[in-house]
Amino acid sequence: MRDPVHHPLFARFYERISVAAETRAGIAAHRTELLAGLSGRVIEIGAGNGLNFPHYPGQVSEVVALEPERRLRRSAVAAALRAEVPVDVVPGVAEALPVKSEAFDAAVASLVLCSVRDLPRALAELRRVLRPGGQLRFFEHGRAEGRALATVQRVADRTVWPLLFGGCHTARDPLAALSAAGFEVTGFRRLRVPEGGVPFPSSPSVLGTARRPVDD
């Protein structure tokens, strides 16, 4: 049976560059910031090769990590075995989470909202599975604030970038999408990955926290 997401060449490429970027581009530090203070049951979408797993704090009782791409999912399973918190890696896409409603205390979206096929539906699913008041931690590519790079992003997204980088769309606006999906964005900061150097279409990023409203 063919997986709903099938990017074997990109997956192989991503496994190599993502590990190198952990230290060279400072991604590991961003992951630590992203996950700090989490507790209880957590769902992570687009877990990739499991690079978030070592950064989950000990107060997390369980992580259900979805990864639809087969090669990356195998790597995530291996990473889960080394994690210090329980991690269950399962197949699935963000637009149809195979879990019960209001089952999680927190959710994590890390460098994945740029590539989901239906962003509003994926965010609606995350809102569904979070308990009222539950947090969504996000670390995502975002639309550039400068006109020149924003233009480059739009051109890249309409041409070869999604084909080369596993469906990634660099010009999406995660903050606007979260608000439109009914989340309350409680804090964020903009950053560039990597810090310094020549900016790429995927360099502008945003890291922050949103929540499902308590009275939802």
Automatic annotation (TrEMBL):
InterPro entries: Methyltransf_11 (IPR013216), SAM-dependent_MTases_sf (IPR029063), Thiol_S-MT (IPR052356). GO terms for molecular function: methyltransferase activity. Pfam families: Methyltransf_11. The keyword Methyltransferase applies. SUPFAM superfamilies: S-adenosyl-L-methionine-dependent methyltransferases. The keyword DNA repair does not apply. Keywords: Methyltransferase, Transferase. It comes from the Bacteria. One of its GO terms (biological process) is methylation. Residues 44-137 form the Methyltransferase type domain. This is Class I SAM-dependent methyltransferase. It comes from Streptomyces lichenis. The lineage of its organism: Bacteria, Bacillati, Actinomycetota, Actinomycetes, Kitasatosporales.
